[in-house]
Amino acid sequence: MPAHFSLTETEDAVNRRLGSMPISREALVAVSNLHRAAAAVRQHLENSALRVAALTWSAFVVLWVVWIWEEIETRHVAAEAGISKGTLTGIIKTLESRGLVRRRQHPDDGRLALLRLTPEGLALMERLFPAFNEEEAFVVEALDGEESARLADTLRRIVTHLEEHGEDRRAHLRAKTPLPPRRGGRRRTTT
Q: Lower Cβ count inside 10 Å, N or C end of the chain?
């Protein structure tokens, strides 16, 4: 289901609401459009390639992570999929009941569990992924090859920046301590 308001209508409403507020409009637009694009892509993929396999986005991402790593600890699956351990537990139960994943106790640490795809799970991913990728290609069809590569690089830089600096930033915000200088030498403080 498409959003109630178009992207242009939403941007106009945001500009009216924010008026002359001293904010980084470039950051606002970039992050807002990143979120909106991610939601639209997820919705499209769930309603196209994943619907055939009766998979949610999160279940597919869990299968993808386990497929790529072959056998992996559940805590790492949750981190890679960007979901909580509790959410992962429910997804694993569903995938196990469908015969797609197998969970076993870690041989060196009984508190940990390992996940592996079953032969049925492997067959599903080998059958499903080409159709999924076909929809990925559809999603970026409006971009040429160079634009797709630039987009991938830009998104990779955002992810890398958050991986390298996000935890420090969040720790500063929690502690309400002065933040380190940003690019361009400007110093930011929390209030």
A: C
What letter would DSSP give residue 8?
H
pLDDT tens sequence across 38-58: 999 999 999 999 999 999 999
- Which residues, 6 or more positions from 61, have their beta carbon under 8 angstroms from its beta carbon? 80, 81, 82, 83
- What SS3 state is found at 55? coil
Query: What's phi and psi for 118, nearest 5 deg?
Result: -80, 170
Q: Do strands 113-117 and 71-73 pair parallel, antiparallel, or not at all (unpaired)?
A: antiparallel
Do the beta carbons of residue 108 and residue 25 sit within 8 Å? Answer: no
* Residue 161: both structure tokens together: 């920046």
What confidence tier does 110 reach under pLDDT thresholds 50, 70, 90?
confident
Q: What is the pTM of this model?
A: 0.80
Instruction: State the Cα–Cα distance between residues 155 and 33, nearest whole angstrom.
Output: 12
- The 10 Å Cβ neighbour count of residue 166 is 11
